[in-house]
Amino acid sequence: MQYHRITSINDPYFASLHALLKRIFPPEEVLAYELWKEPLEDPSIHVYVAVDNGEVVGSTEYRYYPELRVAMTDFTIIGVANKGIGRFLMRSREKDLARLARESGTAPIGMFAEIYNPYERGEHEFGGVTPMNPFVRREVLSHIGYKMINFPYVHPSWEHNGEAVEGLNLCFLPADEELAAIPAALVVQFLEIYYSALPNKPQQWLDMVEGLRGRDQLELLPI
Questions:
Q1: H helix and E strand count, the chain
Q2: Beta bridge partners of 47
Q3: 153/165 Cα distance (integer angstroms)
Q4: What does the pLDDT look like over 98-156, one tens digit per residue?
């Protein structure tokens, strides 16, 4: 299996990746085809596909913020079951993030991820691929070590319509698995940087961030 980075919408694998994104995720989570041009050309955004016999069978996107010493996993997609794609993507991403941290001279403290909470909103449909079922994904991410950051979470829609998307938790994979809380200021900094690409923020998101400014530590809970 090949771990291939996509840096242009003209990459021969990008059309297959975007089709996979649309098949797996709901519309509000998927950036329009043409709007991928600038993100893919951004050297700080890492979009990789797992290629098996010339076919895109999975993908992951992530970034590392050396000034915050944290990473963010934008998504991990498994397109075909029983190929070990999830493990392949996770280990390849770990190695690349270790390289990015080493090159920046920093020691990462953890990685953020937005994780669907099907217990709150009911089950989501994800392209009919069993490994992408939100109950399965949530349990796997719990096994990996992700913890839920204890505050009500919404995020701006990637459809650029200014609406708030609910039904997810902002989670954190701490480098120190005994860590019980993280600074609220770190979460605020991260969210403001990460969503700077979406200028049309919903009022619910603005209120959420403002509320976090008045807090000190945010508890990390099991998921």
A1: 7, 11
A2: 61
A3: 9
A4: 999 999 999 999 999 999 998 886 666 666 688 888 899 999 999 999 999 999 999 99
In degrees and rounded to multiples of 5, residue 186 shows phi and psi of: -65, -40
Q: Of 13, 29, 15, which Cα lies nearest the Cα of 125?
A: 29
The correct CATH number of 2-221 out of 3.30.70.940, 3.40.50.2300, 3.40.630.30, 3.30.930.10 is 3.40.630.30
Summarised one tens digit per residue, pLDDT across range 45-92 is 999 999 999 999 999 999 999 999 999 999 999 999 999 999 999 999
Q: Are 203 and 211 in contact (CB under 8 A)?
A: no
- What single-letter amino acid sits at 129? V
Q: Which two tokens stand for residue 41?
A: 């050309």
DSSP 100: H
pLDDT of residue 17: 97
Q: Percent helix, strand and coil across the chain, each rounded to 5?
A: 40, 25, 35
Task: Supply φ then ψ for residue 90, to 5 degrees.
Answer: -65, -50
Q: Residue 178: what pLDDT? A: 94
Task: Give the Cα separation of 11 and 69 in Å (integer).
Answer: 30
**Domain locations in the chain?**
2-221
Return the structure tokens found at 110: 């953890």
